[in-house]
Every structure is written in C-alpha cells, then in structure tokens.
Specification:
The protein has a single domain, classed as Endonuclease/exonuclease/phosphatase (Deoxyribonuclease I, Chain A, 4-Layer Sandwich), CATH 3.60.10.10. Helices cover 23% and strands 31% of the residues. The chain contains 6 helices and 20 strands. It has a 6-stranded mixed beta sheet with strand order 3-4-2-1-20-15, with helices on one face. Strands 5-8-9-10-14-11 form a 6-stranded mixed beta sheet, covered by helices on one side. Strands 6-7 form a two-stranded antiparallel sheet. The radius of gyration is 20 Å and the shape is globular.
Length: 315
C-alpha cells in the first residue's frame, strides 16, 4: 500500500510540476560605448581611447566582464533589456568575449536618432523564447522625429506557443532641468500608449513595458498607460534604483498587462560586487564606471530591476 501511495505521489508531482517562471531584467548600462571613435556623436569621441575619458579596449573589456557577471548573478534571465548601448558591436563583444558566451543569448538592437549615440536593446535566451518580430519606434513631435531613443518592440513566443511583447524604453532625461524636457517625456509616454493599445487590439495578452523612464512612477502621465504600474508600491516604500545627493530615486520602471499582475513580482537588484559605500552621504550606492573624469571601474549609476512572471493559470 505504501508503494502504491508513493507511486501516486510521484505521478501527481510530475503532472502538477512547479510552473516555469519567466525573468526579464532591465539595466541602464551608463555609456556602454566601445573604445573606437567611429561615429559623429560627441559622446563617441569622448568615450574612445584618444578621448577625454581615455576609454581604452581594456577598460571596455573590464566593463563587459562586470556586466556579464551581473547578468549571471541575476540568474541569467530569459530576457535582458538595456539602455545606453552604443551599438551592436559592443553587444557582440559582451556576448562573445565574456562568460556569457557559454549561454544561448541573441541580440535585438537598432540604431536610434539619439544625439548622444545611445540606444536601447535586449538579449534573449533562444532556449526559452523564439523571436517573432521586432522593430524600433521613433518618438514624434508632429511629423518631426525627436533626437532621442526609440522604443524597442520585441514579440516572442515560448515553447507552449504563448506570446509575449516586450517594450524597452529610455525616455528623455531631465538633464538641464525638468521643465524643458517634460514635453519630450509626454511624447514618449504617448508613443508608448499607442504601441500598447495597438498590441491589445491585436489580442496580445501579455505585454511588458520596462526601462528608464527618467521620472518616478507617481507621474500622472502613467495613469493613461493601459498596463498595471508595478513600480508604484516600491516607490511608495522609498526604494530606488539611483542615488542622487544621498536620496534614492526610482526611475527604472515596469508596467505589465492587467492579467499578469497577480503572477508578477518586481525587484531591484543590488548586486554586491557592483555596490559601493556612499562616502559623501552614508549608506550605499551603485558602482559606476566614472566619477566625473575619474575612472572607477564599475558599470553604472543605476541598479538593474528584475521582473519575474509566474506561469499563468490558463496554461
């Protein structure tokens, strides 16, 4: 009798196996330029081996290795989205010349019209997701394309045929003051709304909008996005992804379809080896590559965020 019960337990365990989770990470890599001066942007000249930052091949390789270690520390997520990436060359070096070469990541990247020469991008695991389609989406002011980062749309299919749309964002910053850049962020949110609504009309049920929004999640603009704001509870708890003058700010945000809310969990990743003491204000802060002109050897002034999505009950 005991053997029969044990067999039944094993059989039930096999049928009701733990659901597979999907993990999506976002990380603003803060000026992830290669060391070559091969474009017309001012930032590219600055981040080159002859530029003001003395951005050499060895420093670039060190940053690649630190990013790779951070991704592995985060559990090698199914999808990793980035902001502030210069080009596909830098991403290729990240995947092929570091510990990530042992994994099955593929790149989705498009050049954007940004003045600084930085783009959004993502990498995804071929073993868990197949890419259906991808495209960059400009931010428009009337008929004029804004010289900022595109919103990247990537649609995936999992092994069970389930579809997932990921929208990677890096909205205009408040550099130079919030008021002059407010219009740019309004236009970016409007473009995001349009994309989300288009996906919903196409019956895409699982949508994730993630990225650096350069604003906190309590902005009334975000109430118009037809997705659930997962970042708001963290903001209300005083958590943040960047530290400015000793205060935490949450500007790396995540929104998901309403049907995904109950199965979704968002967290800020404080990677130990990419965290340093904040000597000026106490506490800790992210370990960035430069402090002004001084090379430090870290990765970014942003902590990454990670979204975990449990398997839906429908599957």
């Amino acid at each position: 009798m005991k053997n029969i019960l044990a067999y039944c337990f094993i059989l039930v365990s096999a049928i009701v196996s733990p659901p597979k989770n999907t993990t999506i990470m976002f990380w603003n890599l803060e000026n992830f330029f290669d060391w070559r001066n091969d474009s017309t942007s001012v930032s590219d000249a600055e981040f080159s081996w002859r530029g003001a930052r003395r951005w050499t091949r060895s420093r670039f390789n060190a940053k690649c290795n630190a990013i790779a270690k951070g991704i592995l520390w985060a559990g090698a997520p199914d999808i990793v989205a980035f902001a502030e990436v210069e080009n596909r060359f830098a991403l290729n070096r990240l995947l092929r010349n570091t510990a990530l070469q042992k994994l099955d990541y593929e790149i989705v990247h498009y050049d954007s019209p940004d003045r600084r020469g930085i783009d959004v991008a993502l990498i995804y695991r071929r073993s868990t997701y197949s890419l259906i389609e991808s495209k960059p989406n400009h931010i428009y002011d009337g008929n004029t394309v804004l010289p900022t980062r595109d919103i990247l749309l990537a649609k995936f299919m999992d092994a069970d045929g389930g579809e997932l749309a990921v929208l990677v964002n890096h909205h205009p910053s408040k550099y130079g003051g919030a008021e002059p850049s407010d219009a740019g962020r309004r236009l970016a949110v409007s473009a995001l709304n349009h994309l989300v609504d288009s996906l919903l009309r196409a019956d895409v049920e699982r949508i994730v909008a993630i990225g650096d929004f350069n604003d906190t999640p309590d902005n009334p603009l975000y109430a118009d996005i037809t997705l659930e704001n997962l970042s708001l509870p963290m903001f209300q708890s005083g958590l943040g992804t960047i530290r400015y003058n000793g205060e935490w700010e949450l500007i790396d945000l995540c929104f998901v379809s309403e049907s995904m809310t109950a199965a979704s969990a968002l967290e800020i990743l404080r990677i130990p080896f990419l965290t340093v003491p904040d000597k000026a204000h106490g506490g800790i802060k992210p370990f960035r590559t430069y402090s002004g002109p001084r090379y430090l050897g870290g990765v970014s002034d942003h902590y990454p965020i990670r979204l975990t999505i449990g398997e839906s009950e429908e599957k």
